[in-house]
Design brief:
The chain is mainly beta. The protein folds into 3 domains: about 120 residues, Immunoglobulin-like (Sandwich); about 150 residues, Immunoglobulin-like (Sandwich), CATH 2.60.40.1220; about 140 residues, no CATH class. Helix content is about 10%, strand content about 45%. It is built from 5 helices and 24 strands. Strands 3, 4, 5, 7, 8 and 9 form a 6-stranded antiparallel beta sheet that branches. A 6-stranded antiparallel beta sheet has the order 16-17-11-10-13-18, with no helix packed on it. It has a 5-stranded mixed beta sheet with strand order 12-20-19-14-15, with no helix packed on it. The protein is globular, with a radius of gyration of 26 Å.
């Protein structure tokens, strides 16, 4: 890909408030994503609107399964309503998905997310529509609603060629285009991955089989980088796939895009993008497409790089810098913490970029693991007196070495409590003592195994 990804740095979703120590890990919010795609219908007055959603499975509360003959000791039960309303607020079409997920355990592994995904396809006339998404958990009766998305279907009488939809997708088989996996993060892009762009094209009388396209990804909403092009290509030649309708199918792995024969469908193009090295930023996608017959269309839309599993302690620049105190000298840390917000952010990026063992992606596994350990330490080793567990002795050892191979705890009624962590790989053990029996364990010995 020519001129792709001129900037290969890391970046972080951050706030600008200065902090002297890592912030407490906040309560996790339930992510819910909604996106819509518009494709040309069978005639000159109809459009196909597809609504795709992704909801964190934790929204649906696990309850013990009363049916001993059914799979799973627990079940998550609820429903998802997807509805399309016209400009007067009247319902045009709706679909209800019943959610019933069997599970062996009510707990998800730390650091992992599992999703409920679905899709609904409606055929409508040209106009403006409001999309309504509502998730309801059966047992807790909690609801989460999205009313903010608006879909606009073009007037087919205008223009020879229109780009009506663009979605990030991943080919399930290298080189194959008949089955794709939708990114399905509300139109946004998952951080650290290469994706292709699935483009719907309405061609009115233009029967071209190929098109040339020029695309660029430009940073927005960052005062020091606004207008900076981080990825682009101006010489892409694509095949216009005709007589294929996209059928969206919800599966356990996500929403699949199946290209099935349909003589009345519009054209589809699949454009490869180099996005794995893009830092976490807000972007504007700009696409110029020109058919072999010379008719052209322009498409622009904003999107973000998203990272739902991002460690909480990494979401604040100053807190993330402060968490480096265990692996830097005081002098190095003072240097990293100096300067403007942008300079501190760049210093943090540069620090971890120099330690990035991950090839071909902006996702840094070393950095990710470090801050996941910081999150764990903050949560598990804090006390009433020192809520930030990363500042405790146990927190420090966990951050530096990870989870111990095994632990032994002694609760002595007449003396101090003690806890010993064994690391077989390091051939070391660490002994902690809680003299006051308040949960504040102090490292008192390090010994070989």
């Amino acid at each position: 890909m020519r001129n792709a990804c001129k900037v290969l740095s890391l970046a972080f979703l951050v706030v600008t408030r200065s902090m002297a120590q890592p912030p407490p890990v906040p309560e996790m919010q339930i992510p819910m994503f909604l996106d819509h795609l518009v494709f040309a219908g069978a005639d000159s007055t109809s459009w196909v609107v597809t609504l795709n959603y992704r909801i964190d499975r934790e929204f649906f509360v696990p309850v013990r399964n009363a049916d001993s003959s059914a799979a799973g000791a627990y079940r998550r039960i609820g429903e998802v309503l997807v509805e399309l309303a016209d400009s007067t607020g009247s319902s045009v079409e709706r679909k209800i998905d019943r959610i019933d997920i069997p599970e062996d355990s009510p707990l998800q592994p730390a650091g992992e997310r599992h999703w409920v995904q679905g899709s609904a396809t409606f055929r409508v006339a040209s106009g403006t529509y409001r999309i309504f998404l509502e998730a309801t958990d059966r047992d807790s009766q909690r609801r989460q609603v999205n009313r903010e998305t608006v879909a606009r279907t073009p007037d087919k009488r205008k223009g020879a060629v229109d780009v009506t939809a663009a979605a990030f997708v991943e080919p399930l088989t290298p080189g194959a285009t008949d089955t794709l996996l939708l990114e399905n993060f509300g139109g946004d892009l998952f951080f650290g991955k290469n994706r292709s762009l699935l483009v719907g094209v309405a061609t009115r009388g233009d029967t071209s089989e190929t098109a040339s396209c020029r695309w660029s990804l430009t940073v927005i909403e960052r005062k020091d980088e606004t207008g900076k092009v981080l990825a682009q290509d101006s010489l892409v030649q694509v095949h216009l796939i005709r007589h294929r309708q996209i059928v969206f199918q919800a599966t356990t792995e996500g929403v699949r895009c199946l290209l099935v024969p349909d003589s009345s469908a519009g054209a589809i193009a699949i454009i490869p993008l180099s996005t794995a090295l893009l830092p976490l930023r807000n972007y504007s996608l700009h696409l110029d497409l020109t058919t072999a017959k010379g008719t052209s269309a322009v498409y622009t839309r904003p999107f973000r790089n998203v990272w739902p599993e991002m460690p909480f302690s990494l979401k604040n620049v100053d807190g993330a810098l402060e968490a480096l105190r265990f692996i830097t000298t005081e002098r190095q840390l003072d240097s990293l913490r100096s300067g403007t917000f942008e300079q501190r952010r760049d210093a943090l990026e540069a620090f971890w970029s120099a330690r990035n063992r991950s090839q071909g992606t902006a996702r840094n596994d070393v950095m990710t693991e470090y801050y996941r350990r910081v999150d764990h330490a903050i949560r598990d080793y804090g006390t009433l007196r020192i809520p930030d567990g990363s500042r405790s002795d146990r927190g420090k050892i966990f951050i530096l070495y990870g989870a111990p191979t095994r632990t032994e705890r002694s609760l002595n009624p007449s003396g101090a409590h003690s806890e010993t962590w064994y690391y077989d790989r390091l051939k070391k053990k660490f002994v902690f003592v809680d003299e006051a029996k308040t949960g504040a364990y102090t490292l008192v010995a390090t010994a070989p195994l």
